[in-house]
Amino acid sequence: MAEKTPRRTFLKSCARLGAVASALPLAKALIPGGVQAASRQSAKKHIAVVGAGAFGGWTALHLLRRGARVTLLDTWGPGNARASSGGETRVIRATYGPTRIYVQMVVRALELWREADKRWGTKLFNKSGVLWMAGAKDDYEKSSLPLMKEAGVPHEIFTPAEAAKRYPQINFAEVKWCIFEPHSGYLLARQSCERVLEAFLAEGGEYRQASVTPGAIAGGEMKGALLSDGAALAADAYVFACGPWLGKLFPDDLGARIKVTRQEIFFFGPPEGDARFREGALPVWIDNGAHIFYGIPANRWRGFKVADDTRGPFFDPTSGERTPSSEGLQAARNYLKFRFPSLANAPLVEARVCQYENTTDEHFIVDRHPQAANVWLIGGGSGHGFKHGPALGEMTAQVALGQKPPDAFFALRRFGS
């Protein structure tokens, strides 16, 4: 004999069923394809991406486009003043020494940057050309040439005399020879991060501004995460692309593998009416001498950018003060006086303090967490990661969705135990 259902319980059940029934037309109206489409959406793999910089933002966008349900999170927002992906501009170039995978990634990244500009009606990539100046030790440059040729990267070789004839505003003393990449240039940094987020939201992604604390790992998986607003975050998988904070979040696995250093960038004002140091008259340049200095010509009504690529002292990206040092400014001025003599007395118009998150070998990390199969660790930009954002995001999306195996070149096991 069937057990009787209490009248109150029966009425509550009817009310719930009525609510569901009344919601079905709404689901049908709001979601193309109606209830079946709603069911398909709920069945999508949910991936949380922590960090909305160059690596995390592009990863989230590629995951979304490959059919995942994606929640993107960032503590202070994409391209914020503390982020390694913040600031005005970044160099994109294919001269990468003997490392084939980076040359190939630059080629793919350039395709994706151009595709994004066309899709969004933007100009995030600016084809100013890149001039690479080789010093006395030129093994890095020599090993770049066959890989660039193999990858189909257009480039020219200049003697110092030929380079000086083309760019008389540069003093080529102590330069052995030059590589010129006519199809390379610079990227807008902060604006790129913002635009990626806009596209991500427009295409159906969810963004939350909050910091994330990884949850407990048990049974080979991470069991959720906690947000700074007190909410719990549950997803099928997690991608942590947190730049200089990655080692802090996972100290046992990455604390000794990632070192955060303080880097200073200066912008100088060219003389009034002097167009020789603006975009169009001068390419992006990288001077691989005793110190590696690099810079970007004045563009978008901003100053002439100069930075020393030498790794600076340890830096806390959260609490560190971002006031440039007098020593850094003097070093930049000394360099300008030598390499760009007409700018020797140029006024400082802007300055930035940012950071690199350097792995011990200066290569990226794209790998699973050693104890959690549903967690991916992405980082180690090491001062050269921004340009690769679209290509690295595409790669990460593919491996996180099981569409391709992770590349051993970026694996954690390369560091040993």
Characteristics of this structure?
11 helices, eight-stranded mixed sheet, D-Amino Acid Oxidase, Chain A, domain 2, 2 domains, alpha+beta, 417 residues
**Into how many domains do the coordinates divide?**
2
Shape: globular
How many β-strands, per DSSP?
A: 22
Instruction: Give helix % range.
Output: 25-40%
CATH architect. name of the largest domain? 2-Layer Sandwich
What is the overall pLDDT average? 91
Distance between the termini: 65 Å
Give the CATH H-level superfamily of the largest domain. Answer: D-Amino Acid Oxidase, subunit A, domain 2
Beta-strand content bin: 25-35%
Low-confidence segments, given as residue ranges, are: 1-42
Biggest sheet overview? 8 strands, mixed
Structure explained in plain terms:
The chain has 417 residues and is an alpha+beta fold. The chain has two domains: 44-81 and 191-256 and 362-415, FAD/NAD(P)-binding domain (3-Layer(bba) Sandwich); 90-187 and 258-359, 2-Layer Sandwich (D-Amino Acid Oxidase, Chain A, domain 2). The chain contains eleven helices and 22 strands. The strands form five sheets. The protein has an eight-stranded mixed sheet with strand order 6-7-5-17-18-19-16-20. A six-stranded mixed sheet has the order 9-2-1-15-22-21, with helices on one face. Helix 3 links the parallel strand 1 and strand 2. Helix 3 (54-65) packs parallel to helix 7.
